[in-house]
Amino acid sequence: MSPKKKVPESVRFTYGRQSWSYPVLTGTEGEKAVDITELRRDTGLVTLDPGFVNSGACLSDITFIDGEKGVLRHRGYAIEDLAEHCVFLEVAYLLIMGKLPDRKEWQSFSDLMNRHSMIHEDMRDFFLNYPEQAHPMAVLSAMVVSLSSFYPEIEQEDLKEPIDITVTRLLSKLRTIAAFSYKKSIGEPFVYPSRRLTYCENFLNMMFSSPVNDYWPDPVVVRALNLFLILHADHEQNCSTSVVRFVGSAGSSLYASIAAGICALWGPLHGGANQAVTEMLERILREDGGKVDRVIDRAKKKDPRARLMGFGHRIYKTYDPRARIAKETCMKLLARLGMQNDPVLQLAVELEEKALAEPYFQERALYPNVDFYTGIAYRAMGIPANMFTVLFALGRLPGWIAHWLENRRDPVQKIGRPRQVYNGPALRPFVPMDQR
Ligand code: CMC
Predict the structure, then answer these.
(1) Any ligand 1 atom below 6 A from CB of 265
(2) Measured in whole angstroms, how far is the alpha carbon of residue 267 from the centre of its chain?
(3) Which residue of 243, 351, 369, 400 sits with most ligand 1 atoms within 8 Å of its CB, as the best mutation to test the pocket?
(4) Would the pLDDT of 16 be above 90?
(5) What is the arithmetic mean of pLDDT over 78-104?
(6) Running DSSP on this structure, what letter comes out for residue 213?
(7) Which atom in ligand 1 lies closest to the alpha carbon of residue 51?
(8) Which member of 184, 231, 257, 386 lies 3.0 to 4.6 Å from 247 by CB, making a disulfide possible if both were Cys?
(9) Overall average pLDDT of the 320-331 stretch
(10) Which residue minimizes the CA distance to atom 45 of ligand 1?
């Protein structure tokens, strides 16, 4: 008997008296999608999917998530392995270049990172004109888009430069810009990056050393920071990454696209949640006397303002694997810093336990996400709350770059342009102003 030929799967779509067949694609890990590229041409219909809950926007080689099983992999490597064995920049290299660097590649990547770590001296003056209370995310986004006026952009053919320079420049400078925006907000002089320090050591040094305060980064803090940045490095088509791809799809520059991504990340439902979590915990201690039951009851009433920040995720319907590592690292870090009795940490642990025992959270599969414990750890490192989302942005940058490049190089990618269903007034006669 000859072997059975595998028939490609398809979905049959019937509308009125006609029907059409659309192919089902299967990803590397077996996830399936119906390809509706021809749907509108065939049927005249568009799909309606607010929040893109059911829609895939692209094929991607970068990150795989199984939200039901709590699996996260970058370029095939498990997040647990990357977190245990790598420093952040190795993961950045992996995401952007598609492979882990060998020694030679690592050396030249590190050299490039060092060479491009300073920002143009004229850009220093920009910082001086922001008000002191300016949120560092606003400064970060504005400074990144300003980079495009100082440096040639890769998509301008006449100014073409090797992609690794554009990419490393951005990776290296974002860290410097982030630290400068903090120094500006506290009125201290800027500290320049140093060749002798690693990526994370440099960031901590630029944040915390001053002419009157020598600073030696604690290796435990450096390791924890590396780990948190790795946990944030990419998360496939999340809101900010989709924004970066979308802006890039119009042909906009890498810098402009990343600046838009930073603005998307700032929102409290996305990266801004890490700041919102610690603010929520501090508020519970201050205003609710640390009584978590009240807070859980309010969250169950579904008032969007009373949501438990740092809980829930669009994709994960089990414990977020990043949250598991973040919690463990946070506990170890605070113990090492002698802060194991920190009331904010204790409250977070109690809130997590009680929320997970509640049917409301169980039925909706609401677990702590990556933002629940990271802010507590940053706070223990001495980083102020308004810088937490900046750290998320530093971590997410390699993912944004990898997706921007993938999108730019994809021969079938089109400009992002969703459809809508118009629901406003039908055609009506124009009324001159004096008759309205
Ligand atoms: N507290 C209380 N109820 C919640 C929460 C929460 N944090 N999150 C979701 N729900 C409820 C929601 O009311 C809804 O209930 P029902 O089915 O009865 O209407 C159900 O759970 C599903 O929620 P959803 O809003 O439809 O879910 P979503 O996938 O659109 O939103 C989310 C995901 C992350 C925006 C949301 O869970 C949330 O607002 N969480 C708090 C903010 C947060 O921690 N954000 C960080 C996300 S992880 C890092 C990142 O990607 O940036």
Answers:
(1) no
(2) 11
(3) 369
(4) yes
(5) 96
(6) B
(7) 30
(8) 257
(9) 96
(10) 269
